[in-house]
Amino acid sequence: MVKSRPNIKLSLSVIIFCSIIFTFAHPTSNKSQSIKQKKRTFEGNLLGLSPMNLQRNGISIGFLPAFGERISPNDPKSINARLPVPMAIMGDYVDLASWDDQLTRIDFHMGWFSSIEGNPVWELALMPNEGLEMVTQDIADKIGKKMRWINEQGIIVWLRFAHEMNGDWYKWGQQPELFLEKWKLVFEAVKAQTDNTYMLWAPNSRFAEVNEPHGGYNLYWPGPQYVDIVGLSFYHYGGHGRTNVLPPTQHAISVLKNFSDLFSTPFNIPVVLAETAASYTRSIESGQPAWGGASEYDIKYQWIQQLLSKEMTEAVPNLRAIAWLQVSMI
């Protein structure tokens, strides 16, 4: 998640999702009926996704809430209140700290799962902000035990360890050999404890040649035996100038197909869009929109339409889900 992202509003994005989504797996489901589940069975390759939750064309839809952000804070409950059925995935970011011996930071948002409908998958970005060196065997074992405990509460986890590792905006970034070592360490520790946590390998969308350490993919690929789900952080920003222009036609499909052809299709591994949004940029000082002329509604509508289209499912048949970032950034 690049720190300089512009504003991405909550209410308008949710309205657009509602306007685009015409059918669900269970279109007659009643929002007033509780569909929370204390335990979930994991039959087939559903990745813990409930067919009762938000989706279109077989693509489940989730959100990364802002929680306590100082700009436009929101939470899963307020997002669900605007949706016809509950979100399928709740995204989250948690610091992995050496002083936190019991990994209590992971517990901070556990309460949301007992208070919102739908029992969403927890897409948990675990962030080694002290650097990859701090991820020892002991830390990895504690991560595995914590994941088992969460799963025992009836919550499925997609563990997005050290995400966007091909970028330079995080302390763990652009260290391919060390990343691979620590990824495999965490993978094996988690799998020794539970089968209901899926390891989500999720670089940033490519901004260099595929074999480059800065912005490429290949040097960070641990191999299909060490990955349960492949995913991307991928946004429409309006180019380097952050202009308010419409997403290019087929752009999302092209990027996701390229990624899927490399890491999903050859190994039949599910693919998800782990973070996405389409930004509408305004001046911090004046509040005036950036150059470009496209409306906020049209920018977001066209991006969401691409992501959830039948053309997308045909081009990327293993696409299982997208998670929309609901955080306003400066």
Could you explain how this protein is built, in words?
The chain is an alpha/beta fold. Helices cover 25% and strands 15% of the residues. The protein has eight helices and nine strands. The protein has an eight-stranded parallel barrel with strand order 2-3-4-5-6-7-8-9. Strand 1 (55-56) and strand 2 (59-64) form a beta hairpin. Helix 1 (10-20) packs across helix 7 and helix 4 packs across helix 5. It is globular and about 55 Å long.
**Largest beta-sheet characterization:** 8 strands, parallel, barrel
Multimeric status of the protein: single chain
* Approximate shape: globular
Distance between the termini: 12 Å
Helical content (DSSP H or I, runs of 4+):
25-40%
Organism: Cronartium quercuum f. sp. fusiforme G11
Domain GH26: 37-330
GO molecular function: mannan endo-1,4-beta-mannosidase activity
Pfam families: Glyco_hydro_26
Fold blueprint:
Layout: H1 10-20, E1 55-56, E2 59-64, H2 76-80, E3 89-95, H3 112-115, E4 121-127, H4 137-152, E5 157-161, H5 176-191, E6 197-201, E7 229-233, H6 251-263, E8 271-276, H7 296-307, H8 310-315, E9 319-325
Parallel strand pairs: 2-3, 2-9, 3-4, 4-5, 5-6, 6-7, 7-8, 8-9
Antiparallel strand pairs: 1-2
Short description:
With 330 residues, the chain is α/β, with parallel strands linked by helices. It contains eight helices and nine strands.
Which features would summarize this protein structure in a list?
330 residues, alpha/beta, eight-stranded parallel beta barrel, 8 helices, disordered N terminus
